[in-house]
Design goal:
By secondary structure, the protein is of the alpha+beta class. Helix content is 42%, strand content 12%. The protein is built from eight helices and ten strands. It has a four-stranded antiparallel sheet with strand order 7-8-9-10, covered by helices on one side. The longest helix is centred in the middle third of the chain and has 37 residues. The radius of gyration is 31 Å and the shape is elongated. About 2% of the residues have low confidence.
């Protein structure tokens, strides 16, 4: 508690100028970028918040950031402790054992050294560190060392999140390429199965572009020339399918979506913000990872919701017999 109070004393506010230096700017920038990206990755891609492991992982990321910043600012603002100006030993004859600092006009206490950068004699001086723009010494030795310990541990955790995110994305990407699909086409195929099961139809949807061979599917994307096969307009299809098998299924799904849409009346204004804080923390952190526009809503308006998450809906805003498509909170 005493350490924390020493940080916020009025006379220490002048220490804020230590932030205006390339060392703290770079160090804090790296901490901010790594922490922010790790948190965003953990929420949007790897280990979502609604799982127990995801929640623990997110809390640990926040904990690393808080502890790293706490020890960093302690090392910077509490400082190493300076030998009082004009200091001399209580027993005057002990001065014969001490060095005299001409700059500070005082004796150097045991284990203290004069720092040309700080222009003061520093108690138990270790070195002057540009990353905290201060000396490391008596009062901040522990904080500085803890910062050096926690920062790599936090980076290892963040690196694990980054690696798993890239691995997950790469695995998903290769999986759909080997089946000659795109992410959207995989989603269309899943909706086709749901549509057939929902209406208990006597039909089977066969994805038309899967050549039945992973190698042939792979060559649809990767070629020695670097130029994809075909012209991008017409594609080879498997036996029993034709060029428009997929688009016919899309038309069926759009018709089904219109039938299954649910009409809602807006009971609260919504600004259309991507991550609205005023709608709650859970809504803020579960904002859909999409570039689709958010629809601004006003109380009393009507919408048609086609699908939804726990805190978000996808659908259309009814506006003079027309629709505005987007994401709704």
């Amino acid at each position: 508690m005493g350490t924390f109070c020493s940080v916020i004393k009025f006379e220490n506010l002048q220490e804020l100028k230590r932030l205006c230096h390339w060392g703290p700017i770079i160090a804090l920038g790296v901490i901010a970028i790594c922490s922010t990206m790790a948190m965003i990755d953990s929420v949007l891609w790897y280990w979502p918040l609604h799982t127990t492991g995801g929640s623990v992982n997110f809390i640990m990321l926040i904990n690393w950031t808080v502890m790293i910043l706490y020890n960093y600012f302690n090392a910077m603002f509490v400082g190493p402790g300076f030998v009082p100006l004009g200091w001399k030993p209580e027993i005057s004859q002990d001065t014969m054992y001490l060095q005299y600092c001409k700059v500070c006009q005082a004796y150097k206490a045991p284990r203290s050294h004069h720092c040309r950068k700080c222009n003061r004699c520093v108690m138990k001086m270790d070195h002057h560190c540009p990353w905290i723009n201060n000396c490391c010494g008596y009062q901040n030795h522990a904080s500085f060392t803890l910062f050096l310990l926690l920062a790599p541990l936090g980076c290892i955790h963040a690196a694990f999140i980054f690696v798993m995110t890239m691995y997950t994305q790469l695995y998903h990407r290769m999986k759909i390429i080997l089946r000659n699909k795109t992410s959207i086409e995989s989603w269309i195929e899943e909706k086709a199965k749901d549509r057939i099961q929902y209406y208990q139809l006597d039909e089977v949807f066969v994805f038309p572009y899967d050549m039945g061979s992973r190698w042939r599917n792979f060559k649809q994307v990767f070629t020695w020339s670097g130029v994809p096969e075909g012209d991008g307009l017409e594609w080879p299809v498997r036996e029993g399918c034709h060029q428009y098998s997929l688009t016919i299924e899309q038309l069926k799904q759009k018709a089904d979506k219109r039938v299954r849409s649910v009409r809602y009346k807006v009971i609260e204004d919504y600004s259309g913000a991507c991550c609205p804080l005023n709608k709650g923390i859970k809504t803020f952190f579960t904002s859909p990872c999409t570039e689709e526009p958010r629809i601004q809503l006003q109380k009393g308006e009507f919408i048609l919701a086609t699908r939804g998450l726990r805190y978000w809906l996808y659908g259309d805003k009814i506006l003079d017999d027309s629709f505005i498509e987007g994401v709704l909170v």
